[in-house]
Design brief:
307 residues; alpha+beta; five-stranded antiparallel beta sheet; four-stranded mixed beta sheet; 26% strand; binds flavin-adenine dinucleotide
């Protein structure tokens, strides 16, 4: 892959200011970790998305979707090829009792929009810091609600660059997973089926969830939220707490003293530090309780090359 050739070919299909070269991914991830993306692309139209996908497939250039970077850790060596961000797709609208949100809109904003429209069903998402696309990919959820409960359908681009409408049940949504990676879909827009409700009641639920979140989570430090999935029959946070791991760390990353399920970037951590803490937690919990903690967070990219 000749970088200059790729740049000039990308400039033929995209507006110039939609292409960033060697972009620091720590500026696009919640953990503030990670190396550079060779090409950081922010298309402005569906046609540009289609063109980029077709180009990448034709030229066999790897490409990676990035939402708000709130559930990924990018390794210190960064990501080769194209990183596609749909952050310019942020419109949210109402159609009957449905909320239709573009994939780069924050799911928090879709939840707030539903409140303004007096529509109930998206309250659970009021504090989840991902985009609509990332929330769908992860089947994000909190406090008893999840995307699966209210998604009706989504608009996607497939690996051939074609646009399709896909019904909620076709995404195999389950606890923090979907089949989007396996299918290779790029989510463009999601439609949520909601119900008419009362502003004050919807707001009271959202205020309560916000209070719970702010009092329990270490939101003052960069993190990627809960690192591990809930193991059947246990709570990850409780197992980590009972393993006396809170406050323990590697380099600048440590297990939060406020919420044991979070690992925080406390002091200029590297991705290697952060991943080492994840592994330390997994090994300790396994040795102490015999429980395997499965990561919820995704690790992308490659390690830094040693000089
Ligand atoms: C403080 C904090 C609190 C959190 N609380 C919660 C919580 O309560 N509940 C919860 O479920 N999660 C929570 N999370 C995790 C995270 O916010 C969610 O998983 C969110 O859905 C990820 O969305 P994102 O846009 O940040 O995706 P990213 O982290 O950028 O990406 C996640 C995955 O989605 C893929 N992806 C992103 N956009 C698209 C797209 N358009 N099409 C196809 N694939 C795409 C990416 O390739 C990647 O594999 C929390 C995170 C933090 C930092």
């Amino acid at each position: 892959m000749n970088k200059q050739t790729v740049i000039s070919e990308l400039q033929d299909i995209l507006a110039k200011d939609h292409i960033l070269i060697d972009e620091e991914l720590k500026n696009h991830t919640y953990t503030k970790l990670g190396g550079k993306a060779d090409f950081f692309i922010t298309p402005g139209t569906i046609e540009e998305v289609q063109e980029v996908i077709r180009y990448a497939i034709r030229k066999q250039i790897p490409f990676t979707l990035l939402g708000n970077g709130s559930n990924v850790i990018v390794r210190d060596g960064g990501i080769r090829g194209i990183v596609l961000s749909l952050k310019k797709f942020r419109a949210i609208r109402r159609e009957g009792n449905k909320v239709v949100a573009e994939s780069g809109a924050r799911i928090i904003d879709a939840s707030r929009f539903a409140l303004q429209e007096k529509l109930t069903g998206l309250e659970f998402a009021c504090g989840i810091p991902g985009t609509v696309g990332g929330a769908l990919y992860m089947n994000a959820g909190a406090y008893g609600g999840e995307i699966k409960d209210c998604l009706e359908h989504a608009l996607i681009v497939d690996r051939g660059g074609d646009v399709h409408q896909v019904l909620a049940e076709e995404f195999d949504l389950d606890y923090r997973t979907s089949n989007i990676a396996e299918k290779g879909y790029i989510v463009l827009e999601a439609t949520f089926q909601l119900k008419e409700g009362h502003y004050e009641e919807i707001k009271a639920v959202m205020d309560d969830l916000t209070f719970k979140r702010e009092s329990k989570q270490p939101l003052e430090y960069p993190s990627c939220g809960s690192v591990f999935k809930r193991p059947p029959g246990y709570f990850a946070g409780k197992l980590i707490q009972d393993s006396e791991l809170q406050g323990k760390g590697v380099g600048g990353a440590e297990v939060s003293t406020k919420h044991a399920g979070f690992i925080v970037n406390k002091d200029n951590a590297t991705a290697s530090d952060y991943i080492a803490v994840i592994e330390m937690v997994q090994q300790t919990v396994k040795a102490k309780f015999g429980v395997k903690l499965e990561r919820e967070v995704r690790i992308l990219g490659e390690d830094e090359e040693m000089a």
